[in-house]
């Protein structure tokens, strides 16, 4: 498809880029897979394979990495906020920024972390999980 035939797409792209930290890509199964493999090599030592903070290095840290699934993220839980955390780190903790990783890898990691937080939430509608909660309750 020719991008120039749809000038509004370009305008929208520029607007989105200036509002968010960077162009937020749509999560896909491939991205989650990519995020998973990067997470295993770069993050799991501290954060644990399941994101529970029980990695061999993480256990010895102060502060310890939080359990992604049960503890709120201090720096935000929107994909763009997690992306920023991964890019810039958490001041005052051993969590450094990973800006050296390609941007696509950081987005993949952001979505993978959010999927560890709430399995299935990323591809099942991402930010709409809040809206789904009442329905889940009704089923019980
Ligand atoms: C050297 C150990 C270490 C490594 C490696 C590491 N982290 Fe962290 N991370 C921490 C610590 C410590 C914290 C701060 C405690 C907390 O907030 O959980 C943290 C915090 C976080 C947070 C929560 C921030 C918030 O808003 O509260 C996220 C998300 C995160 N890390 C993702 C990652 C990802 C993704 C990677 C791999 C690219 C990674 N971390 C690599 C130690 C590490």
SSE layout and pairings?
Blueprint: H1 7-19, H2 29-47, H3 79-88, H4 103-117, H5 129-139
Helix pairs in contact: 2-4, 3-4
Residues 42-43, 45-47, 57, 61, 63, 65-66, 73-75, 82, 85-86, 90, 93-95, 98, 109, 113 line the site of heme C (HEC).
Give structural notes.
It contains five helices and no strands. It has helices spanning 7-19, 29-47, 79-88, 103-117, 129-139. Residues 42-43, 45-47, 57, 61, 63, 65-66, 73-75, 82, 85-86, 90, 93-95, 98, 109, 113 line the site of heme C (HEC).
Hetero groups: heme C
* The CATH homologous superfamily: Cytochrome c-like domain
**Proportion of residues in extended strands:** under 5%
Shape: globular
CATH architecture: Orthogonal Bundle
Total helical elements: 5
Order of helices and strands: HHHHH
Percent helix range: 40-55%
Mean pLDDT: 83
The N- and C-terminal alpha carbons lie at a distance of: 46 Å
Got a strand count? 0
